[in-house]
Amino acid sequence: MTYLKTLAASAAALAVMAPAAFADWAPRKPVEFIIMAGTGGGADQIARLLQGLIEKKDLSPRPFIPINKPGGSGAEALRYMQDKAGDNHTVMMTLNSFYTTPIIQEDLGVDVTEFTPIGLMAMDTFLLWVNTDRNDITDLDSYVSAVKGAGLDWKVGGTGSGQEDSVLTAMMEAAFEYEVTYIPFPGGGTVAKNLIGNQIDSTVNNPSEQMEFYRAGNSKPLVQFTGERMAAFPDTPTAKELGVDIEYYMQRSVNGPPGMDPEAVEWYTNLFQTLFDSQEWQDFCVSDGLTCDAMMNGAELANFHATQKDAHVALIEQVGAGAITGE
Amino acid sequence: MTVRTAELLMAIATLALSLGLMFNVYADGLTIGWVEGRGPGAGMWPFWLSAGMALAALATLVRWVQRKTPESRSDAPYIAPETLFLVAVSAVSLLALLVLMTVIGTYLSLMLFMFFYVRVLGKHSWAMTWAFVVGTPIFIYLLFEVALTKYLPKGWPIFEEGFLVIDNLRYEYFY
Amino acid sequence: METILVSLGAGLMQAFEPLNLFMIFAGCLAGLFVGCMPGLGSVNGVAILLPVTFLVPPTAAIIFLAALYYGAMYGGAISSITLGIPGASTAVATVFDGRPMAQQGKADKALMAAAIASFIGGTVSVILFTLFAPPLAAFALKFGPQEEFALMLLAFATFIGLGGDDIPKTVFSILLGLVMAAIGFDIISGQPRMIFFDMVEFQRGIGFLVLAIGIYGIGEMLWTLESTKGQVTMHKVQITWARMKANFAEVKKYINSTWLGSFLGFFVGTLPAAGATPASLMSYGLSKTFSKDPDSYGKGNVAGVAAPEAANNAASTGSMLPMITLGIPGSPTTAILLGGMIIWGLRPGPLLFTESPDFVWGLIGSMYVANVATVILNLAMIPIFIRVLAMPFTLLTPIIFVLCVLGVFATTDRMFDTWIMLILGVGGYLMRKLNYPVAPAVLAIVLGPLAERSLRQSLISSQGDVTTFVTRPISLTCVLLALALISYPLVQRALRRRQSQRRAA
Predict the structure, then answer these.
(1) pLDDT tens-place string over residues C278-319
(2) Which of C456, A92, C293, C171 lies closest to B43, judged by CA?
(3) Quick one: CA dihedral A105, A95, C204, B53, positive or negative?
């Protein structure tokens, strides 16, 4: 460890004289770890866990400082990163609003494919949840008929118009030809609580947001929107098995601002690779139903972002931006 | 300026502010009415509350004309001339602090700010002056950067580089 | 019951181990210090926690955490009273009477009342927590958007009478606060609202602290500078034993407000949406409404300090309930605590009580001890805090300004907010000179977002049917209570008038 520190210190001393011209790059000042969502949500939990691990394992010569910029479904964070172009001391924890927000807010002036991809830490998944009190709903068919019976009285909770769960809800409305009332709440935890309290009828939460209620027998998953059944939910069918073509994931990746120096990118990529391979992170993935097979980085991740972005453009066109914003 | 004039100007300013807010909401194309089956639209709350502000500002104007409020009857000066200097200096020094923070960084600005108050305004001894000029940035550094891990504004890159030389010492010797 | 006592006993035993006891005092001190800086609260203090976490075992870290949390809650009152700047959003209501008391040379009385009320509030709350956590969690689940909105109505109703005597100006102030709260992204429709000059920064909205520090920090300082012509130094208070004793004897003056604040605070704090800030404001409003002498509130009534302080401490304990039993943070600080718990491998949720009893009872046990530790530290340090009041203005003013600017910066990490703070501060000062009351705007910006969101959520879920607020039992109860509260002062005034007429006749 002292080795790393001496290295960092000498690197820093040299870098003062010749910035950016040194191969063994390491941060010279605290790294801003931007989170494009509010405190307490999935992205925030992950970022704070990663920050804690960096500190615990002493992986960085300078601390990572988590900063939440939740304004406008992440618009504030995206704009901030765009304005930080070329900065080597800012990285961002992203979720799918990374794609959706610039599409819905056209005048934001952010093209996420220009951002510097660092590492895809995990793919989060979505399941359809109802309260266990609903004995009449046991599978997707009974769910669809219950929704159709209730019509607009059926209330689906979500984390906000334009957020990924509203996209997924709109996809389901299109696939099953029903219409529901979508009620936005601040944060996935609040949505989960309102489902358990029977304030809403169903929700598409991430596993981490419902896991504890599921284990306590308060809520039950009906369908998972994944390619294959997850290990954590072996008895829940995927939508594809039931003949419904909906597969939707939430990416949890770390990205830098546009134009980051290659040496810095390399350093951050190595750092997050170490974190990705750590026992703590892999344990977290298992317990929270995240898919963490291998960390995508570099050009591969850039391609991934490009495909995802196009997919979201198509999705939003298909369901209509109006179906997502509700007005 | 008398209190009476000031109240008229403030009433006009608040009325203009309210109307401006209403216009802003309306021009953004937000729904200011009731959406059938959904309740209030996105613009309803700010638009109609701004309308309420406009009414309240109008009421103040009417009361001013009728000389109903104590302020509308007062011919005392709005800000007493002997204190105007003090208030203006405080407001302007804060403005300068904020501008300087974005240019030369938090710590140098703090030193200038403290020097101005303690030495120029307060005419305290040099010992006191230096204690504050040097002590404040050190205290702020320890509290915000070391304990609370906040990265305060460092200004333009050239000033940031200068700060980093000092910051590096901390990491080199204390961790 | 017996199992609760046994578990609690084990929790308390943990708290008394030497390392843990040290962590309690260290945490309380750190919390007090951070909490008494304007703008900095327990949210910032938790940053201190992280490095500590890796040095000591998790239980000790939790205990440090709880102590820090309590310390910050107590600390918030200190700057509210001595400087007139709310140290944290939860301590705004403490300014209303704490500041006048300090100006009358009774800062020590106010600080003592704040410490004792906080202690009672915290203790009552942690006892309720120990006894009723599971049923209360079940009750909190019954709170949907309709109930939240009804609760907000109730909160607004308690503020009747907080405004000045000029009705149009009071109305303007309330509405301005509510409109400012709507700036930024509308989560219901996902549309940006009131993004002035197309500045992206407005999408985040204007935070409560920006307005509160602008008005109470910058505005109040300008006001004081002007009204005292630069002689800011207040009456120096000589602390003697006799005076301390006399202060203790005053407890009976505010004990009723303290009980009210304690129970109200705990209850409001347990509701996931609310938290300690609305709780302390409601407690202040109610205490004033039911006081025999409501006119003395805002002019230095010691009960006006005790009521919000009891409530905010009670609520901060209460807000741990949804976090521990449901995994939902009730306040921003508990949201960060939640992050800390995950690092320790603990998952908050309905099963935490049964799966990690050591953790839960260690936390509860340390809450009892932290409360005692903080009140002792706080009482002992009153003479030090008082010294701040003896500083000349050329030293005090720049310190306050600097802390205000950096405090606001630290909450959001944006210079933008410090600019807004300056504009609001100067604007607030100019308006205040013309008898526009500023407190209603500050209250409105806290409750505005909650009120608008819950109103629209309710109406979406009832498909536009407004009767939804009176067809649900809890919501109906809150609405009726709100109506009763609004009419109470009117009825009282009518009664008084009749009495005086009778006397005249």
Answers:
(1) 888 889 988 888 888 888 888 889 999 999 999 988 988 887
(2) C456
(3) positive
Paired tokens of C74: 């107590």
This prediction has a pTM of 0.87
| Long-range pairs for A194-198: beta carbons < 8 A, 24 or more residues apart | A194/A157, A194/C144, A195/A129, A195/A130, A195/A131, A195/A157, A195/A219, A196/A131, A196/C141, A196/C326, A197/C140, A197/C141, A197/C142, A197/C143, A197/C144, A198/A131, A198/A133
Closest CB to B46 among C194, C226, C463: C194
Shortest distance, CA A297 to any CA of chain C (angstroms): 25
Q: Which residues contact A49 (CB under 8 A, 6 or more apart)?
A: A280, A281, A284, C339, C342, C343
Domains and CATH numbers, chain A: 29-124+250-319 (3.40.190.150), 127-247 (3.40.190.10)
Q: What does C172-190 look like in DSSP terms, one character per residue? A: HHHHHHHHHHT-EE-TTT-
Task: List A325's β-bridge partners, or say none.
Answer: none
| Whether A95 contacts A43, CB under 8 Å | yes
Residues of C in contact with B28 (CB under 8 A): 191-195
Cα distance between residue A42 and residue A187, in whole Å: 9
Confidence of residue B53 (pLDDT cuts 50, 70, 90): very high
Please report residues of A whose CB lies closer than 8 A to that of B171.
5, 8-9, 61-62
- pLDDT tens digits along A299-324: 999 999 999 999 888 888 876 666 55
With residues binned 3-state (H G I as helix, E B as strand, rest as coil), the percentages for chain C, rounded to 5, are: 80, 0, 20
Tell me the chain A residues in contact with residue B167 when contact means C-beta distances shorter than 8 Å: 29
**Domain ranges, residue C470:** 2-35+46-504
So where are chain B's domains?
3-73, 81-174
Kindly give the pairing relationship between strand A90-93 and strand A249-256: antiparallel
CB contacts, 8 Å: C328 with chain A: 40, 189-190, 192-193
> Exposed/middle/buried for C501, CB within 10 Å: 0-12, 13-18, 19+?
exposed
In order, the DSSP letters of B65-93 are: HTT-SGGGG--SBSS-HHHHHHHHHHHHH
Number of domains in chain C: 1
Distance separating alpha carbons of residues C370 and C383, to the nearest angstrom: 21
Query: How far from chain centre, in Å, is Cα C87?
Result: 10
Concatenate the DSSP letters of all residues of A6-25 into one string. Answer: HHHHHHHHHHHHSTT--SS-
> Which residue of chain A comes nearest to B32, CA vs CA?
A327
8-state DSSP, A30 = P
Give how far B159 is from chain A: nearest CA, Å. 12
On whether the CB atoms of residues A116 and A91 are closer than 8 A, the answer is: no
pLDDT for A1: 41
Asked whether the predicted pLDDT for residue C505 surpasses 90, the reply is: no
Nearest to B49 among C168, C178, C415 (CB): C178
The C-alpha atoms of residue A47 and residue A275 are separated, in whole angstroms, by: 12
Strand locations in C206-322 (E)? none
d(CA B72, CA B88): 24
Residues 132 to 161 of B: which have CB under 8 A from any C CB? 132, 136, 140, 143-144, 147-153
C40 is a domain residue: no
Report whether C201 contacts C414 (CB < 8 A).
Answer: yes
Stretch 290-319 of chain A: residues touching chain C, C-beta under 8 Å: none
Backbone angles phi, psi at C184, to 5 degrees: 110, -160
Identify from A110, A201, A203, A212 which residue to disrupt to test chain C contact, counting C C-beta atoms within 10 A and taking the largest count: A212
Distance CA C440, CA C457 (A): 25
